[in-house]
Amino acid sequence: MNHHGLGRGMAAFFPEEEKLEIEVVEEIALDQLRPNPYQPRKVFDEAALDELAQSIEKNGIFQPILVRKSSVFGYEIIAGERRFRASQKLKKETVPCIVRQLADEEMMQIAVLENLQREDLTPLEEAQSYDTLMKQLNITQEQLAQRLGKSRSYIANYLRLLSLPPAIQEMVTNKELAVGKARAVLGLKSEKEQLAFAKKIIAEQWNAREVEQHLKEWQEKALSKKQKEQKARSIYEEKIENELRHKFQIPVELKRKGKKVELLFADDSDFATFLDQLEIGEGG
C-alpha cells in the first residue's frame, strides 16, 4: 500500500510550542524501557526489524529513542519502539535515549504522529490513529485533514474501515483484501452480506471493476428481497436509492414523506464521503 507522509508534521499539532532547549542524550539500560501503552502499531514486521537490527549493528542508532520517566518502573517509550525491539534482537545492554516530561495525552499524540509519518502502518492502524487523534483533540475530519496535509476524503475513506466487521478488518490487515475493495463491501447493509461478498472477492480474485459490477448485482438482489418483505414502494424511489448506493458505495436509505425527501446515512463518515463526492466542503 502506498501511504503518504504527513504534509505538515507534528508542528501542526503543537504550533504554540517554542523551540526546544538542547536535549541531553543518555545511555539507558534496555531492561529499564517498556513499550508505549498508547502505541497505535499492533503489527511489527519481523523481517523489517531484522533489517533494522543489521543496520544498528553496523552503524549504531542515529536517532535516540524518546522516553519519559515511568511512575511505576524505569522508562516508557514515547517514540522509537522499532529501534527498541531491534536492539533487543541484538541483545544490547543500553541504548541512547532522550528523556522528556510529557502528560499522557501529549505522549499519545506524539506516538500516533510518529507512527503516521512512517509508511508501514497497516490500513486499520492508520484508521485507528486518525480516529484517536480526532477524539483526543476534539477535532473534525476536515480539521484533521488540514493539519496532516491530506484531503478530507482520504481521512474519511480510512475511517470507514473501522465500520467493517472484525473478520473483514482482519482480511485487510492480512493483505487478503485491498482497502478499496474492502470499502466497497460497505455498500451492502447487513454484516452477513458484507462477509459473504468479501469472501467472494477473495475467492474469485475480482479486480476493482468486477467488484463494482458484482456489488451492483448484490445490491439489486438484496433490494429485490427487501421489496418482497415490505409494502410496495415507488419504482422510481427504489431506482434513485439503488443508484445512490452504487454511485457512492455507501449504505444510504431514501425516505419520502409527502413532498419531503430524506436521505439516511449509517454514520458521519458515510455522510462526509457523500459530501466529498458532491464536492461540498464543510465550509460550504
Explain the overall architecture.
- With 284 residues, the chain is an alpha/beta fold.
- The chain folds into 2 domains: 10-156, Conserved hypothetical protein from pyrococcus furiosus pfu- 392566-001, ParB domain (Alpha-Beta Complex); 164-277, no CATH class.
- 50% of the residues lie in helices and 12% in strands.
- The strands form 2 sheets. Strands 1-5-3-4-2 form a 5-stranded mixed β-sheet, sandwiched between helices. Strands 6-7 form a two-stranded antiparallel sheet.
- A hairpin with a 5-residue loop joins strand 3 and strand 4 (75-79).
- The chain is elongated and about 75 Å long.
Considering the chains and any ligands shown, give keywords for the structure.
two-stranded antiparallel ribbon; alpha/beta; 284 residues; single chain; 5-stranded mixed beta sheet; Conserved hypothetical protein from pyrococcus furiosus pfu- 392566-001, ParB domain
What order do the helices and strands come in, and which of them pair?
Layout: E1 25-29, E2 33-34, H1 46-59, E3 65-69, E4 75-79, H2 81-89, E5 94-99, H3 104-116, H4 123-137, H5 141-148, H6 152-160, H7 166-173, H8 179-185, H9 191-204, H10 208-229, H11 235-248, E6 252-257, E7 260-265, H12 268-277
Parallel strand pairs: 2-4, 3-5
Antiparallel strand pairs: 1-5, 3-4, 6-7
Helix pairs in contact: 1-2, 3-4, 4-6, 5-6, 6-12, 8-10, 10-11
Q: Can you tell me the number of structural domains?
A: 2
Strand order of the largest sheet: 1-5-3-4-2
The fold-level CATH name of the largest domain is Conserved hypothetical protein from pyrococcus furiosus pfu- 392566-001, ParB domain
Poorly predicted runs: 1-5
% residues in beta strands: 5-15%
Distance between the termini: 32 Å
Query: Count of helical segments?
Result: 12
Q: Mean pLDDT, rounded to whole units? A: 82
* Main beta-sheet annotation: 5 strands, mixed
The percent of residues in helical segments reads 40-55%
Oligomer: single chain
| Total number of beta strands | 7
Structural class: alpha/beta
Name the CATH homologous superfamily of the largest domain. Conserved hypothetical protein from pyrococcus furiosus pfu- 392566-001, ParB domain
- CATH-derived architecture of the largest domain: Alpha-Beta Complex
Rg from alpha-carbon coordinates: 23 Å
What is the CATH top level name of the largest domain?
Alpha Beta
